[in-house]
């Protein structure tokens, strides 16, 4: 099966992102091929390690992996400190390579350890969730949460190589898989009608995790993320479009205390709300709104929004706004594949959009 290669350039150089089935069956030779020579340390988490440890045997270098506890709670400084201890015990030097083998939590925490230990080690990302394959493994943002908020401590540390192997997704729980797929739908809505249509047309093969169908899908998303991360820092507009569905999505996560929705699920609701807002302004065609609600319906159920209050969601969006210097930028779809960023959305419009997703 074909492997798709993208090259992401950044201030300090560039790195390849490879997408293809079976890529991780031979990680050792793959590193050698990319001239990544050095002691390797694998960082992973128990659910991933239980299922996929066989794939990492040739890069363990006689050491067990550094396993961090599973889940978002583990994305914190004490976990990073434990990783430093593990790296120290191995007496690794600056020529070492850290391999992040897991979802976004592992990638972000392992990446932050790699960014900071001995002022920076090389990093290879091998993402194992759909979300991390289409989003978090690319771009070099690494970090952890503080009690005060998510991703409050971090760094930019570009990986040396990213391997996205859809075979790894075979064991991913359906709900996690679906959550990642909402982010893929997001890329379609913001900038690629063909991607949106591809997902619609292949939805059952996608849910069957057919690697041949997933490879081009993941590659398309990676390409879009790469374009955005490679764009000039000042090109805020492009970067902002990635936030489609996230203004309402972040608010839903916050007001449910990060317990009810997976991130992608909250974004799913956020996309529906933003699209409904556009439709109400008369700037999003009815047939595109239908196509979006249809695909969302076909993807399966989202956790209920029952009991969540519109006033709390509006407050949460207001505090998000403070973070972004006072203006609430809202990404609105104009048609599938095209968006516009506006900053004149009124509370009345937001309430109407929240009603569409069952929040009053
Ligand atoms: N750095 C970035 O640019 C960026 C971008 C987006 C999101 N993120 C971060 O990513 C994190 C979320 O990532 P995520 O959605 O991958 O969550 P995650 O890493 O928590 O993984 C989700 C669950 O799936 C399990 N899992 C992972 N791979 C598996 C596999 N192949 N088989 C079976 N189980 C598997 C994990 O153990 C976990 O329980 C958040 O912390 C978010 O802040 C970072
Ligand atoms: Zn997101």
Question: What report would you give on this structure?
Answer:
This protein has two domains: 4-171, Rossmann fold (3-Layer(aba) Sandwich); 174-208 and 231-356, Dehydroquinate synthase-like - alpha domain (Dehydroquinate synthase-like, alpha domain, Up-down Bundle), CATH 1.20.1090.10. It has helices at 27-33, 46-52, 77-89, 104-116, 130-136, 174-191, 193-201, 203-207, 211-230, 236-241, 246-255, 263-281, 286-299, 310-323, 347-356; strands at 4-10, 13-19, 40-44, 66-67, 97-102, 122-127, 141-146, 149-156, 161-164, 330-335, 338-342. It is 48% helix and 17% strand. The protein contains 15 helices and eleven strands. Bound molecules: nicotinamide-adenine-dinucleotide and zinc ion. Zinc ion (ZN) binds next to helix 12.
Q: What's the SSE blueprint?
A:
Blueprint (H helix, E strand, L loop, with lengths): L3 E7 L2 E7 L7 H7 L6 E5 L1 H7 L13 E2 L9 H13 L7 E6 L1 H13 L5 E6 L2 H7 L4 E6 L2 E8 L4 E4 L9 H18 L1 H9 L1 H5 L3 H20 L5 H6 L4 H10 L7 H19 L4 H14 L10 H14 L6 E6 L2 E5 L4 H10 L4
Parallel strand pairs: 2-9, 3-4, 3-5, 5-6, 6-9
Antiparallel strand pairs: 1-2, 7-8, 10-11
Helix pairs in contact: 3-4, 5-6, 5-9, 6-7, 6-9, 6-12, 11-12, 11-14, 12-13, 12-15
The protein binds nicotinamide-adenine-dinucleotide (NAD) and zinc ion.
